Amino acid sequence: MDVREALYTTRMMRRMHPDAIPLEVQARILDAAIRAPNGGNTQRWHFLTVDNPDTNAELAPIYRRCRQKEYEDMAAGTFAVPLENPEGHAATMRQTTKSADFLVKHFTEIPLLLFVFAIDDHGGANIYPAIWSTLLAARVEGVAA
Ligand SMILES: Cc1cc2nc3c(=O)[nH]c(=O)nc-3n(C[C@H](O)[C@H](O)[C@H](O)COP(=O)(O)O)c2cc1C
């Protein structure tokens, strides 16, 4: 797959196959991530992968609680509502909730979790390119993310 196809077809996914991601594929994805541009090439990041179902099972209730908190924030109007199209915003929120609920339900089936830790990265300027490279590299490998 060339770069343009990856750029044009990479999407966020919450419904994914449970098939294991081979270690060499994980390594290629991470190798792309750490080539991303970052301030002063200081690489102030850590990546942590989890491909162990037992660990997923421990993390699942934490994820469920986090989603619950997000829904409470949404209900309390903490997120900005675009005034020009409140109906469209409500529809987006319904769709987001539906797909997030699916992920809560199927959390233990996610074959690979990738945690990205940014060190002293105010605003995310240094870490977001690495995350985007991760998503593109995953797309090239046929891995939804
Ligand atoms: C930059 C960005 C920010 C996002 N922020 C949120 C968010 O705050 N809450 C949320 O539940 N999903 C968030 N998402 C996830 C997407 O809304 C969602 O995964 C994507 O639209 C796929 O939805 P689907 O599973 O319904 O196809 C975000 C995605 C991106 C790319």
TrEMBL record:
One of its GO terms (molecular function) is oxidoreductase activity. InterPro entries: Nitroreductase, Nitroreductase-like, Nitroreductase/BluB. Gene3D superfamilies: NADH Oxidase. Pfam families: Nitroreductase (PF00881). It comes from the Bacteria. Residues 11-143 form the Nitroreductase domain. This is Nitroreductase family protein. Keywords: Flavoprotein, FMN, Oxidoreductase.
